[in-house]
Design brief:
Radius of gyration: 23 Å
Shape: globular
Oligomer: single chain
CATH topology of one domain: Dna Ligase, domain 1
CATH architecture of one domain: 2-Layer Sandwich
Strand order of the largest sheet: 3-2-1-6-11
Helix content: 25-40%
Largest sheet: 5 strands, mixed
């Protein structure tokens, strides 16, 4: 715990240095692609004058001056499985983005998916004796949270205060400067497999870059794909990537739950490849240009040339009806959505005042997916594209770039986390607590 606490603090410090220099690289390490954006800041070192805890400010203050993507290698289910291949892919993406930007970048902020995320809701209360709430009291109440036994081989990736209460007034974003008798906090803590994080850190070091921040792509995507009302009133962001599908739930502008399903677009491609006996590259092309999940009568007559280059003329001129292709794709898409529904049910999503669901990520572009998702998930569903940010090239405005764009917003204005407050390290209690994420039902 202490090691991570220190390393996260060191990263925060490095981020400040990068902001002062004016440029930072954003790296989204996915299973199907690695995206790199290079941001130039306006020299203020922060996005807005708004200094409240956890505030999400607007996105002026930086512009994208370089962007590149490369096919991901050595990454499966969002996790690095072949370090040298991933390192080469990261270097390729970063170098191409640097070339476009015309600058060299030393600092990088990265996001990744997978890593078996687990959410915990923590809370604590301290007596103030009528004094004014200052940074010290915030640190004290955060330190008073009982940390659950989250098991060996796990690390805390995010630990964010999501709600403060002063005496009987709940729902405070920032209690500093106010007077009261007792201060309480609700906190969301996200743990991930330590090895996955360590591999990401190691990969970036091997590329001769300094890591100035790290975030889960579930968190980053929601930052970019959810509009302000959705973040405030309650919404789930489902980021359908190549190797995994990330889920995050936001409420009162904070992430209060995150999870991941170890399936994504690559699994649909693999089903097509096996079902039609064609190479993966062909299957990916057919999925992208002809795929869907809702068959109509016309799809029986709509024939797709599945091609091939085996040299066997009969084999290579085969066609398949679009209805048959949909018949292969739909069961896997339904399976992914059923898994997502199980996770949202476990999180108590139905207790939120608003239950909007936003689909984003590269695989969310499958034709008819939003209609199928609203049937399986039983909620309002819309497709989410990332917010527009200055200088973002047209090629990087699709749903597949939600993570990278969200990470840019996170880089410019990170929400306050546990390690942003000077708290005595010896104050971490080691007592066990097996409370899951149920507290937001009672508090909001």
């Amino acid at each position: 715990m202490t090691d991570l606490y220190q390393s996260q603090r060191a990263m925060r410090q490095m981020r400040r240095q990068a902001m002062q220099r004016g440029v930072v690289a954003i790296l989204d390490i996915g299973s199907s692609k690695i995206a790199c954006l290079i941001l130039r800041f306006d020299g203020t070192g922060r996005l807005s004058e708004d200094n409240s805890i956890g505030s999400l400010a607007g996105q002026s203050g930086f512009r994208v001056i370089g962007a590149a993507t490369t096919r991901s290698r050595g990454v499966q289910f969002g996790e690095i499985i072949a370090m040298q291949e991933t390192e080469r892919a990261v270097r390729t993406a970063v170098q191409a983005a640097q070339k476009m930007a015309g600058v060299r970048v030393d600092h990088v902020i990265a996001s990744f998916s997978g890593a078996n995320p687990r959410s915990y809701g923590l809370d604590a209360q301290i007596e103030l004796e009528g004094q004014e709430v200052s940074e010290t009291e915030i640190a004290r109440v955060l330190a008073a949270c009982e940390v659950p036994e989250y098991g060996p081989g796990r690390e805390v990736l995010h630990a964010q205060p999501v709600n403060f209460a002063l005496d009987n007034r709940s729902g405070l974003e920032d209690p500093r400067g106010q007077l009261g008798q007792s201060l309480a906090v609700d906190m969301h803590m996200l743990t991930v497999d330590a090895a996955t994080v360590q591999n990401v850190v190691r990969c970036i070091q091997r590329c001769d870059l300094e890591l100035a921040g790290i975030a889960s792509s579930a968190y980053a995507s929601a930052y970019a794909a959810l509009v302000e009302d959705e973040q405030e009133l309650g919404a789930a962001c489902i980021d359908m990537g190549g190797g995994s599908t990330s889920i995050s739930v936001f409420m009162k502008k904070h992430m209060i739950y995150a999870d991941a399903v170890r399936m994504g677009g690559d699994h649909i491609t693999s089903d097509i490849s096996m079902g039609l006996g064609i190479p993966t590259a062909n299957a990916e092309r057919i999925k992208t240009f002809c795929g869907g999940v809702h068959a109509t009568g016309a799809d029986d007559r709509d024939m797709i040339d599945i091609g091939g280059d085996t040299g066997d003329w009969e084999h290579d001129r085969r066609t398949v009806s679009r209805a048959e292709l949909i018949g292969i794709m739909r069961p896997r898409v339904e399976e992914i959505l059923e898994e997502v529904r199980c996770r949202l049910d476990a999180a108590g999503f139905e207790y939120l005042p608003s239950q909007q669901i936003v689909l984003t990520g590269g695989s969310s572009q499958i034709l008819g997916l939003d209609g199928l998702a609203s049937r399986v998930l039983g909620q309002q569903v819309r497709l989410g594209r990332p917010l527009r940010v200055h200088g973002l090239p047209q090629s990087a405005t699709g749903p597949g770039f939600s993570s990278a764009v969200g990470l840019s917003l996170f880089a410019a204005n990170p929400q306050d986390e546990w390690w942003d407050f000077e708290m005595p390290v010896d104050r971490y209690p080691a007592r066990s607590l097996s409370r899951a994420v149920r507290w937001f039902r009672d508090n909001w």
